[in-house]
Design brief:
The chain has 141 residues and is an all-alpha fold. The chain contains five helices and no strands. 69% of the residues lie in helices and 0% in strands. It starts with a helix and ends in a 10-residue tail after the last helix.
Length: 141
């Protein structure tokens, strides 16, 4: 695993968590809707005494548990990444890595923050990646 692959994991996991949160919200909304009664023959598909939305709520709860596990993994990964980035000795390189991989900022935002042009930011990023020392047991997502 390269330094860039290691550091990009947090961004990808953050995107996955946000996607899962959106999905859970949609499922929660669908489960809370009242369904109108249907006329005609009805086949009983749920257990007696169980409302039809109960299984939907159970699925939402399972998804929320998965989201919580992913958030725990993201927190652990970012904590380890902070240690790795802090070990980079050059301040500009360290800041670029921190803004890019911890704060998920764009190149333009980093340039604005550091008052540097895009080429300089790219150069600091490349040198910073070269100075990153991966931990003995890097977290893999």
């Amino acid at each position: 695993m390269t330094a860039k692959e290691y550091l990009r994991q947090a961004y990808r996991l953050d995107l996955k968590i946000n996607s899962d949160i959106e999905e859970a919200a949609r499922l929660r909304e669908m489960a809370s809707r009242l369904t109108p009664p249907t006329l005609g023959d009805k086949v009983q598909t749920t257990r007696i005494g169980e409302a039809p939305f109960v299984r939907s709520i159970e699925k939402v709860l399972m998804l929320e548990e998965q989201i919580n596990r992913e958030i725990d993994a993201l927190v652990a990964l970012k904590e380890q990444m902070r240690g790795v980035i802090t070990a980079v000795t050059d301040t500009d390189e360290r800041l670029v890595l921190r803004y890019r991989y911890i704060h998920n900022m764009t190149w333009e935002q980093i340039g604005d923050k550091l008052k540097a042009d895009r080429t300089t930011v790219y150069r600091w990023h490349k040198r910073g990646l070269a100075h990153v020392q991966l931990p003995e047991s890097p977290i893999r997502i």
